[in-house]
Specification:
Layout: H1 19-39, H2 44-48, H3 57-75, H4 82-89, H5 98-117, E1 127-130, E2 135-138, H6 139-172
Antiparallel strand pairs: 1-2
Helix pairs in contact: 1-5, 1-6, 3-5, 3-6
Length: about 170
């Protein structure tokens, strides 16, 4: 059996990054590793399965990638585009392969590091607004939320992937 690597925050990496951004980046690194691990053996049927009424793994993957994109837009001080709004409305629509979805998640996560690095420590406290209601937050609040929101949906993805695999195994028995 292969030895498991410690989680990113225990690897001694990103020491050049100040602690808050480092925590965000480590959480996203773990999220990426978990998505890749738990979707590795899923076929298209399992990807779109909604066991016990849970949102599908594919939905979670689309939502992770698209929500990171939306949150980075808000962090940049911008409003969502029509394309982003349309993408939000279509997150439940099936139609991509597991490889395409994995690529979308990885690309979205990997955009965060250079984005976060471009701001000074002082700029992290700058005010931002979220959504049509313009709810108040800060740049650092958005970066932290990207990490926590992504982790929440990765946890749901893992649970759904486990249930889908167990159901598929039970069918084959």
């Amino acid at each position: 059996m292969a030895e498991e690597r410690p989680e990113p925050w225990l690897r001694g990496t990103l020491t050049e990054v100040e602690p808050v951004r480092r925590a965000v980046l480590h959480a996203l690194e773990l999220a990426e590793e978990d998505v890749l691990r738990w979707t590795r053996d899923l076929d298209d049927e399992m990807l779109e399965m909604k066991p016990l009424g849970l949102p599908s793994v594919a939905f979670q993957m689309r939502h992770i990638a698209r929500s990171i994109d939306r949150l980075l837009t808000y962090a940049d001080g911008l409003r969502l585009s029509e394309a982003q709004i349309a993408a939000l409305r279509s997150e439940h629509v099936a139609g991509r392969s597991v490889e395409e979805l994995r690529h979308q998640v990885v690309e979205a996560i990997r955009k965060v590091r250079p984005f976060a690095a471009q701001f000074s420590q002082e700029e992290l406290n700058e005010l931002r607004s979220v959504g049509g209601a313009g709810l108040p937050t800060t740049l650092v609040g958005l970066l932290i939320h990207i990490a926590e929101h992504t982790q929440r949906h990765v946890g749901q993805l893992i649970t759904t992937a486990k249930v889908a695999a167990a159901l598929k195994d039970a069918e084959g028995s």
